[in-house]
Amino acid sequence: MRSIICVLLYLFSSAVQAETVRLYNWADYLAPSVIEAFEQETGHRVEQTFFDDEEVRDQMLYSGKLSYFDLVMIDNVGAQQMVQEGLLQPLTLPPSLQQHLAPARIKACGNHTIPYAWGTVGVAYRAQQGKPKTWREFFDPSSPHIQRVMHLSPDETLGVALLALGAPAYSDDPEAIDQAAGLIRSQPAQTGFALTLAEEQGAQFDAHWALVFSSDLGPLRESTGQQDWQYTIPDEGSLIWIDCLAAPAGHPIRPATQAFIEFINRPTIAAQNAELMAFATSNLAALQHATQRYIENTTLFTPPELLERSHDFEAISDEMLEYRNQWIFNLTQTMATAQ
Predict the structure, then answer these.
(1) Among 10, 63, 96, 246, which is disulfide-ready with 113 (CB 3.0 to 4.6 Å)?
(2) Quick one: signal sequence residues (predicted)?
């Protein structure tokens, strides 16, 4: 009888201690097998809610609605701004795991968030159509038959258009931004996130060139069934994005949340997750457990000569962000009408 009571007490105690980790994340950014392994090891659950628009995510953070979530995936520039505004609370790893993270990624994410992944902005292209050698060619292709897709954003889209003109990606010169906006609208293009459109349209996705993030290539092939999609960075270089795991302010970091971030930062788990989800990990020790094929993937790990011509995402002043956003609004209206 005593043994039965002890078992019941143990089961009751385990059930009480089990928690749900609520994560606000991009889709296809956390391997299901990693979630399953964490749940089996700890008894906790992981519940994901997905977003496909950074602006929507940021609006929810500023409104306080994301206090429901334990963790949110956010870019490094947004993370640092939100830390200053008190919207995020410190999220840390024990030194034994922290030491595995790339110092440059730690610096980029700041001391309140944890580096997760990084990559570049480039062009996905159908192999039979060839690739654009320059950003100018992407925005103004010589062939009228090239079907292009691009999302309209004040940083990456205007940024690479500025690179095409030989200007800094984060120029605060209104005249340069005007010229970049003019280049973007110089030829008809379908607007929207290429991966979102590919997931909606499947095999009917008929673009030839698409503005994408380096981690989009695998999901793009999978969503469309079109295996000839390739990835390139034009000659002018690229923009380097960094994603960080953050904890919204509003409630304490629970044991399950801490257990989760420590679990996914174990080198073996980080390697498994990054390979399955096809992104470049920020965990240097994970590379010791990754396959040679992953390590040599130049879509994920940009060759040094191109990285030298690439630029980290930077914060934009409120004044220039408003100016860029006005252009994005105008482009959205005019290019949508032209479709």
Answers:
(1) 246
(2) 1-18
Provide the 10 A C-beta neighbour count for residue 230. Answer: 14
Instruction: Please answer whether residues 175 and 149 qualify as being in contact, where contact means their C-beta atoms are separated by less than 8 angstroms.
Output: no
Residue with tokens 């005249």: 175
Q: Spell out where the chain has E strands.
A: 20-26, 45-51, 71-75, 88-89, 114-126, 148-150, 190-191, 209-213, 229-232, 239-248, 280-281, 311-312
What is the Cα–Cα distance from 321 to 159, expressed in whole angstroms?
Answer: 12
Which among 180, 214, 219, 176 has a CA at the least distance from the CA of 197?
219
Query: What are the extents of the domains in the chain?
Result: 2-118+242-295, 120-239+303-338
Residue 69 CA to residue 87 CA, distance in Å, equals: 13
- The superfamily (CATH) of domain 2-118+242-295 is Periplasmic binding protein-like II (3.40.190.10)
E strands, 180-309, where? 190-191, 209-213, 229-232, 239-248, 280-281
Angle, nearest 10°, between helix axes 174-184 and 318-338? 20
Q: Which residue has the tokens 């929207």?
A: 192
The span from the CA of 160 to the CA of 131, in Å, is 16
* Residue 129 dihedral angles phi and psi, to the nearest 5°: -95, -10
Find the mean pLDDT for residues 120-125.
Answer: 97
Would the CATH topology of 2-118+242-295 be identical to that of 120-239+303-338? yes
What's the pTM value of the predicted model, to 2 decimals? 0.86
Phi/psi at 301 (5° precision)? -110, 100
Beta strand extents in 76-134 (DSSP E only) = 88-89, 114-126
CA distance 100 to 103: 9
Residue appearing with tokens 């609004």: 329
154-204 pLDDT, tens digit per residue, is 999 999 999 999 999 999 999 999 999 999 999 999 999 999 999 999 999
Instruction: Tell me if residue 247 falls in helix, strand or coil.
Output: strand
